[in-house]
Each structure stands twice: as C-alpha cells, then as structure tokens.
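Aim 2 progress update. The chain analyzed this quarter is reproduced below.
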Amino acid sequence: MVKSRKPAKKLPNDILPIECSDKNFMECWKPGRNVLNFPHSFRWVLVGNPNSGKSTIIKNHIIRADPPYQKVIVCHYDADGTTEYDDCGGDIEYIDRLPNPKELNPDKQKMLLIIEDMNLTTLPRQDKEYLNRLFGYASSHRGISICITAQNPIDICLSARRLFSVMTIWKIPDLNALMMLASRTGFDKNDYLL
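Predicted structure tokens:
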C-alpha cells in the first residue's frame, strides 16, 4: 500500500510553475523581436503551390534567427542534388530520410530541421513514427525547431498537423483541401478563402 505524503507546509490553491529540466533552451517573444524570428523551439507548417515562396520564407527566418542556429538539417527528396539552403550560411546538412529523434541533437544545440516537400503520406511505418516523435517529443525536449513544407495540406500527416505551433498558408487551387484544413485546425473556412 502506498502511503500518501503530506507536504511540510500548506501549499497555495494555485498551479505552481515547475520547470522541466529537458526544456532549458526555450525562447520567448520580447519587445522588438523580428516577426520572422519565432521563439525556439517551434513546429511550423508551410503550405503552398510550387514557387509560392515557402523556402524563401524559411530562409528569411534562418537569417533573422537571433541567436542564430548552430545546426540546420534539410530533409530533402534529392539531398545529394540540392544546395537550396546553402545561401543561408552556417552549418547546413542535407539528408534524404527522416532522422531518428533519439539520435538527433544530443548536445541540445539550437537546431532547425526542415522537411522540404517530401511526400509524408507514403512514408514507411518507421518514418511515420519518427515524424510523430519529432513533432511530439524532439521539438520540445531536444531543442529542435521543425519546418515542414507541402504543396497540399492533405499530404501532411495528422500527427504533424495536430502539433504545429505556426502555420503559413498560401491560397491553393484545391479549395476543398483548404476547407478541410480549416475544419481540422479550428479556424473558420472563410478565413482561408480570402
């Protein structure tokens, strides 16, 4: 039988803030902070047609990050054939598969993982588990901000859509997909059809 332990002193009838030792890297908004300098760590979903500016917005975020990222990893279908983010400077690594969240960022450096226009609906089971844990654990506990770009919101796995903290949407021709996205993110569909 477990004995209940009574506190040594009476506690207030409020929730007490108790810091999580895994989350000592979290940033916050401060006056004068650039609007594209999102506080680290975040989960950002960008949806738009090809050539709509998704990567350009991410690059603008990278060059405005203050303090800057110590590591940027780009998960890209053509990792060996692209240099798309090289113009951002810094340590850019290109990979063609989702990384294992348990092995990612052991030193808890300020890190950005960009998942660039990969088809997330056809991922192997292991990669779907990785994506879920990247969004649900690694971002908040291992100091990793994550960006996912997609041309169709339906291509973004449900686990990622449910856990994003920032979403940027360009008007796309598939209005049904936009309305579905609105209904699944708590917004009014008319907000997406402007």
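The CA atoms of residues 153 and 160 lie 11 Å apart. The mean pLDDT is 83. These observations will guide the mutagenesis experiments scheduled for the next reporting period.
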